[in-house]
Amino acid sequence: MTPDINLLPWRESSRQARKRRFLLAVGATCLAGMLLVLSWGLVVDAQRDQQQLRNRYLEDHIAVLDQQLAEIGDLQRQRIQLIERMRVIESLQGNRPAIVRLLDQLVRTVPEGVFYTSVKAAGNVVSIEGVSESNNRVSALMRNLGASAWLKNPNLDAIQAAPKFGDQAATFRLTVNIRSPISREQETSR
After folding, report:
1. Could you say which DSSP state residue 126 is in?
2. Does 185 reside within a domain?
3. Where are the alpha helices (DSSP H) in 110-161?
4. Whole-angstrom distance, CA of residue 27 vs CA of residue 187
C-alpha cells in the first residue's frame, strides 16, 4: 500500500474556506447591525410618537386650564366689583339713620321764631341758613345745637338784619359739626 499523497493545493482551499467564513461572518454582522439599527429606529420613532401624543394631551389640558384661569380671573373681577357695590350700598344704608338723626336733631333744636331756609351737609359739617325773629333766637339756636347729642361746635358765620321779615328779624348763616357716631346702646338709652 502506498501512502496517500495529496497533491491538491489544500492550503489554497483552506484559505478560501476561511475567507468564505470570514465574509459570511462579516455579512451576518452587517445584516445584524442593520437589523439592530432598523429596530432601534422603530423603537425611537414609536417613543417619539408616544411622547408627541402625551405632549398634545398636555397642551389640550393646558389650554382648558388656561381658559378656566381666565374664567376665574373674570369671576374674581366680578367679585371685587360686587364687593365694592355692596360697600357702597352698606355705606348708603349706614348713612340713612344718620341723616334721619341729623334732621331730627335740627328739628328738635330749632327754637320758636327761627326758620331754616337752607340746610347743606358736606362730610361732618352742616351749613344752615335761615331767618329768625331776633338775634336772641339765633343765640338760643346755637345753645341748643351745642347741647345736642349729635351736633357740636356751632359757629355763626354771618348775621344780617332783614327788615322785610320784621323790624328785629335777621338772616343768619352758621355751621355745626356732626359728632362721631354714637353706639346703638347709647342711642337706645336716649
Report:
1. E
2. yes
3. 135-147
4. 108
